[in-house]
Amino acid sequence: MMSPMPREARADVAEYLARSLGGRVGLDVWTRAESGLVLPDRDTCTHCDEVVESAREIATTHDAIALTRYDLDRHASRAEEAGVERAPTTVIRGGGRSVRFVGLWSGPLLGPFVTIIGLMGGAARPLPPESREALEALPHSVDVELAVTPFDPISPQLLLLLGAIAAEAASVNVTVTEYAEFPKLAARRSVVELPTLWIGERRYAGVWRDDELVEQIAREAADNEEPVIRESTLSVPYLSEEQARQLAQQMRAEQGGQPGLGPGTETGPGGSGLIVPGRG
Q1: Residue 29 backbone phi and psi in degrees, to 5
Q2: In angstroms, rounded to a whole number, what is the distance separating the alpha carbons of residues 158 and 190?
């Protein structure tokens, strides 16, 4: 199959990991062989092959990265133990910490995903000392789930922030789900705006600063139900992959058939689409 990662992005990934990794990182990739039957209550594993190929390409860039593949059905007991419920899921492990990413981490989500690999492998961590101290003092573990898509400008920043938090605190269990490829799941969980965040059982929409999010996690761990007053709660509407394709077609038609950019296709420096940490 054609590589899902642009050549320029592969070069940027290799350069970043070469200067960032100081310890070993594991990439556990969970997929499922589709039977061809359309199940009314389950989205198909649309991007399983792309996730496997992208993970393989990243693993070949550095000897400290180990790639392990699992089948969600054949390794069902192990999946239950790991808390993996959907395919494709990629678990980034390092230094006793982990982040689960459900879905395809492409386009604007690729840069933060690779940065999290670096953070799990010992790269310099960006959180300020007061946030680190608050996370170290959590009285018990907290589950955090983030709903993202590659079609909005907010998701990549919040993905990166949660990765930094997970790299600091083993007691914060982070799952990130790319909902554009899971429209049935999005409908079932009433995901209509992004980013949507679940901290414990409580649901929040919109952006967060790092101090606000750390404080909300600390309140959840302390069983404090009072919400943090945020500076902004900016959010954008949810788009499935099909809705994004339709919008892109509409935009092209309005531009007279010119090959304009569709949602989520913005590129970074050099046109690779990868935002490399430490570069302007």
Answers
A1: -110, 120
A2: 20
Q: Give the helix/strand (H/E) hosting 194.
A: strand 193-194
pLDDT grade for 44, boundaries at 50, 70 and 90: confident
Q: Which helix (H) or strand (E) holds 218?
A: helix 210-221
Longest dimension (CA), the chain: 59
Beta-bridged to residue 193, according to DSSP, are: 237
Quote the DSSP letter at residue 88. Answer: S
Q: What are phi and psi of 39, to 5 degrees?
A: -95, 130
Residues 6+ apart with CB under 8 A from 79: 30, 70, 72, 85
pLDDT digits (tens, 9 = 90+) for 141-163: 999 999 999 998 999 999 999 99
**Residue 124: half-sphere exposure toward Cβ, Cα within 13 Å:** 6
CA 58, CA 101: separation in Å to the nearest integer? Answer: 15
Any idea of the CA torsion for 200, 201, 205, 207, to the nearest 10 degrees?
-10
Rounded Cα distance, 7 and 12, in Å: 9
Q: Is 86 helix (H, G, I), strand (E, B) or coil?
A: coil
The enclosing H or E element of 107 equals none
Instruction: Please write down the HEC assignment for all residues of 34-59.
Output: CCCCCCCCCCCCCCHHHHHHHHHHHH
